[in-house]
Design goal:
Length: 999
């Protein structure tokens, strides 16, 4: 029952009528303060706004003599009843702390817009029309308005603009997911969708809202939030009232930023801009944590503005891939070692401040680089490698000195690098000078003490060069400090003997065999040269290790077929050498360093062909398997670098054919055969290189990937043979159908990542092969969907059957997943393939993703016209495509776009065009008058002129009339002029669509 609506029957004493809140404002406070007020706060807002006629569209010019009594403040066209009810609604919203979550769930979209518009108008002191008045224009604020309050109102509105689009998409998805399970009602479905145009109309202003919110984040002034006391209700003795905007409270900047960054993150996730979403969610997390530290728990009051929930924020962090704290310096150190010491100097400099890496790890790093340079690695410039070694030593010395310990190690380093002593001391001064101001006062003192020791020990030997170092890097030790220190040194009276005057004392390091072995093992893990591996294996073998050397690094993985050959080998050099080189080759392949991986496998193959190993059958099998592994790496390189052709394509094709033939021969003779991954890669490469005849082999059920390649090959040859006049064999069709069956007891699942179809799609590169596979999936999709309005079109669909027995056994979601997977892979290598772009648009269209569908349709047309440099002509587009684009535009609220597209039919569809133009929100949704220059049909322009006349839009009518008067649109022109005029306007319209959907 509507408790607020006055009735003619007697009411109980507990019933409160709406005007009682006006007579006694304290009643509203008392009612809202109840534990569970009935009606609730949101119900009150709905009731107040429902009883106040909408003032956004109709703003009658009421004179003072109006019997209803109008509000006479500047620009506010509310009568007394309207103003009173709107102020009450705003008071309730302020009591709710402007919580958009609650408002969006319980208040319909039109009333949400009305509430926000009333807030903007009352804070501005004059009528504000949304969404046209979007910026804080000083001219919008009247004498009764408030700048900071209007800024608050606009900020709330722009937040709502982003949230409304996200919530609308969530509701649509929720309704679709429940469509197969009955009319399930949830809280979200109360978000009213009957006026979707009001949401779609927000899309053109979305970027403006984002810019405004970013500007609010940068504002230096404090952000003030309107409170319950800010709104003063009208009483029976006054026609107007002054709102108490000065009672707004200022909130912490971190609270405002946390809320705005949260809303921006929601929107960017919705539009799939994941980098921007991640940036904003990290800023939200940072400000939310600061807000909790500064505010929460201190005042005992609820938050004034921010409604971010910690659990929801954590969910968004996980959605954006932020799973924990950033990698520590120790983790970055290990990654740098694996990447050939990239950024190692920056990591050590940062660690000199943060002190996260243990000194044992830094010392091992120093020894590692020393050993890396000692074995003569050819991976880089020797001079640069030596400079890197000295830089690491210098940074370690600085860390030792600031720790106040292990100064002995510093002196050992100075003696160890005696030949490079000037360069080492210069590095010490340079790195200490660069970071000196970042060190604590205690660390600066320790550093100065150590440098005084350096001056004492080596200042005399270096002479003027030392003074040049001090003069260049003067933060640690200034030139004056150097002079004072030297002047204060006391001369020894004791006469020292000759041995005491020697300066070549060497303090030996303690020899630890375990450390030396560990150093060699680390070098073995990091090196990428087969020669270096050979030398290190010999050195480590001399230490009599208790376990095989290939177990040093657990990350070295070996394919199972190779493992079956390597494990039975006699333990020794060949076993270790083979396992390590194969493991390193797989690591390098994963890092896309194909050349080095092939080199390692080639060296291993040559090793198996040494004369002394010729009689060992296991070694012969190992050599053959290694050659196949090298072929696999070559194929992976070709697929990764596509469309770049391999250097020796003829030899590569020959090797692939021999590999496939060896599998056939091994099947007959039980001989050694390549494993399935190699065979499938060989078949896929031959398929991509159009080596069709090589794939016409007897199908082997053990290798479904090869069998599938063979079936697709047969389909292509049938196209060539029959010239598209009849359907071909059903081998590929029958192979793929079982992959989309619903397993018993399961309603929904995903394609397994190791299925033959998924693996083959990842390896396809040849356009014709991809088109054949897409046609098969598209045909199957149409059969299972069985809806004429949801059909998708692809090339070569005539190849496949037009029906399937018992369609309920198949899962159409799996077919759609495979289709999307194949299309994404295809468009990655051929982004301008027009049939594929149209097919992708069809797939998005039948999934009701109209904006995405429109983007792909427009991309296809843009590519077909060579980026609008040639005229748009058939068969690039047809009536089927245009009708779908019209449907997309209509569903997106772009009705004038749909009307313009109606001209693209063979015969202009005036009925559909006139209906689109007549939509109520068309003048607000897609800038109606900006499309007049794209219309060439005079009948359509005449209808628009008449429509504006009926609406009283004089300025727009004159604008439309000016376009009718253009000479090239004269009905008496010849056909050539008319065609040229239409072609120019088509390209103009296409460019505008490209700016909207592609940019």
């Amino acid at each position: 029952m509507d408790l607020l609506k006055p009735r003619t029957v007697p009411l109980s004493e507990e019933t409160i009528l709406w005007f009682e809140f006006l007579l006694k404002p304290a009643l509203l406070t008392k009612h809202l303060g109840k534990p569970n007020p009935d009606p609730s706060a949101t119900d009150l807002i709905v009731q107040f706004l429902s009883k106040a006629p909408e003032g956004q569209i109709q703003t009658p010019d009421l004179t003072p003599s109006d019997p209803d009594g109008s509000h006479k403040s500047e620009g506010l066209k509310y009568n007394k009843k309207q103003l009173a009810l709107k102020v009450l609604a705003l008071k309730v919203a302020a009591y709710m702390r402007w919580d958009l979550d609650k408002l969006e769930r319980a208040v319909s979209v039109p009333l949400q817009i009305q509430l926000l518009a009333d807030l903007c108008s009352i804070t501005a002191g004059k009528m504000v029309i949304l969404p046209s008045s979007l910026l804080q224009d000083p001219t919008l604020i009247g004498t009764d308005g408030s700048k900071h309050s209007f800024n608050f109102a606009l900020t709330l509105y722009h937040r709502w603009v982003l949230r409304a689009q996200v919530l609308r998409a969530a509701v649509i998805k929720n309704i679709k997911s429940n469509s197969n399970h009955g009319p399930t009602v949830t809280d979200l479905t109360t978000f009213v969708l009957r006026d979707e145009s009001s949401i779609a109309a927000l899309e053109p202003i979305t970027q403006l809202s984002i810019d405004y919110l970013n500007q609010v984040l940068m504002e230096p002034q404090a952000f003030r939030v309107l409170t319950y006391e800010s709104f003063v209700p009208l009483d029976s003795n006054s026609d107007s009232t002054q709102q108490r905007f000065d009672s707004a409270i200022a909130i912490k900047p971190c609270e405002l930023r946390a809320q705005i960054h949260f809303d921006l993150c929601q929107y960017y996730l919705f539009v799939q801009k994941y980098e921007l979403a991640r940036h904003n969610v990290l800023l939200c997390k940072e400000n939310y944590a600061q807000w909790q530290r500064e505010e929460i728990g201190r005042t005992g009051l609820p938050p004034a503005y921010c409604t971010v929930n910690a659990e929801v924020l954590q969910g968004y962090l996980l959605a954006c891939g932020v799973t924990g704290e950033p990698d520590g310096l120790l983790q970055r150190l290990h990654e740098s070692i694996l990447n050939h010491y990239s950024d190692i100097v920056m990591i050590l400099k940062e660690d000199n401040i943060r002190k996260e890496i243990p000194m044992t790890q830094r010392k091992l790093l120093e020894l590692n680089i020393e050993g890396y340079n000692a074995i003569g690695s050819t991976d880089g410039n020797p001079i640069e490698q030596k400079e890197l070694e000295l830089a690491v030593v210098a940074l370690n010395i600085i860390r030792y000195a600031m720790d106040g310990e292990n100064i002995l190690s510093c002196n050992v380093a100075m003696q160890k690098y005696k030949n490079q002593q000037p360069k080492l001391i210069e590095s010490l001064f340079q790195y200490a000078d660069e970071q000196y101001e970042q060190f604590s006062m205690e660390e600066r003192g320790l550093l100065k003490q150590y440098f005084y020791k350096i001056i004492t020990l080596y200042g005399g030997e270096l002479g003027s060069a030392f003074e040049a170092f001090v003069q260049t890097y003067s933060k640690v030790v200034s030139l004056q400090e150097l002079k004072d220190f030297r002047a204060q040194r006391t001369q020894f009276d004791t006469q020292l003997g000759g041995i005491a005057l020697q300066s070549d004392w060497v303090i030996p390091e303690t020899k630890n065999p375990r450390l030396e072995v560990g150093q060699l093992e680390r070098q073995l893990i990091s090196c990428t040269s087969a020669n270096a591996v050979r030398k290190l294996l010999v050195k480590i073998a001399g230490t009599n290790p208790s376990k095989p050397l290939f177990t040093i690094n657990p990350s070295w993985t070996i394919p199972y077929p190779l493992e079956q050959i390597l494990i039975p080998l006699q333990r020794g050099f060949l076993q270790d050498f083979a396992c390590i080189l194969i493991g390193k080759a797989k690591e390098l392949t994963a890092r896309k360093d194909y050349a080095t991986a092939i080199t390692l496998l080639t060296v291993l193959k040559n090793e198996t062909q040494r004369p002394e190993l010729a009689g060992n059958p296991l070694v012969a099998k190992l050599g053959k398997m290694v050659s196949w592994e090298g072929l696999l790496v070559q194929i992976q390189q070709v697929l990764d670098e596509w469309p770049k052709k391999p250097i020796d394509q003829v030899q590569l094709v020959r090797n692939c054919k021999q590999c496939l033939n060896s599998a056939i021969g091994a099947t007959a003779s039980n001989d050694l055969m390549p494993h399935a991954k190699i065979l499938e890669h060989c078949a896929a490469l031959l398929l991509n290189l159009n080596e069709w005849n090589a794939l016409l082999i007897a199908p082997d059920k053990r290798f479904p990937g090869v069998e599938l390649c063979s079936a697709i090959t047969q389909a292509f040859l049938d196209i060539e043979k029959f010239k598209g006049t009849k359907k071909t064999n059903r081998e590929a069709w029958e192979m793929l159908l079982p992959m989309f069956l619903n397993p018993s007891g399961s309603r929904q699942r995903q394609l397994p990542p190791d299925s033959p179809l998924v693996l083959l799609i990842a390896k396809l590169r040849e356009p014709l092969v991809i088109s054949i596979l897409l046609s098969l999936l598209a045909r199957l999709h149409n059969i299972l969907r069985d809806e004429p309005n949801a059909e998708i079109n692809a090339e070569y669909m005539f190849l496949w059957p037009s029906n399937v027995n018992n369609t309920s056994m198949y899962n159409i979601k799996l077919v759609t997943e495979a289709l999307n997977l194949a299309l994404n892979q295809a468009l990655r290598y051929y982004p301008n393939n027009i049939p594929w772009l149209k097919l992708k648009g069809d797939v998005e269209f039948v999934a009701n993703n109209f904006e995405a569908a429109m983007r792909y349709y427009v991309t296809a047309l843009i590519s077909g016209t060579e980026y609008c440099t040639v005229h748009l002509q058939r068969p690039l587009f047809d009536d089927f495509l245009i009708r779908r684009m019209v449907k997309c535009s209509t569903n997106l609220g772009c009705f004038v776009q749909a009307a313009v597209l109606c001209q693209f039919f063979d015969e202009t569809d005036y009925g559909l065009a006139f209906k689109s133009i007549s939509e109520k929100s068309s003048s607000y949704s897609d800038a109606m008058d900006s499309y007049y220059s794209c219309i060439w049909d005079s009948t359509l322009l005449e209808y628009i002129v008449n429509w504006h006349y009926k609406k009283g839009e004089h300025k727009r009518r004159l604008q439309a009339v000016s376009f009718i008067g253009q000479l090239e649109l004269n009905a008496n022109n010849n056909e050539e002029i008319k065609r040229e005029a239409a072609a120019v306007r088509k390209n103009r319209f296409l460019r505008s669509l490209a700016k909207q959907y592609m940019c």
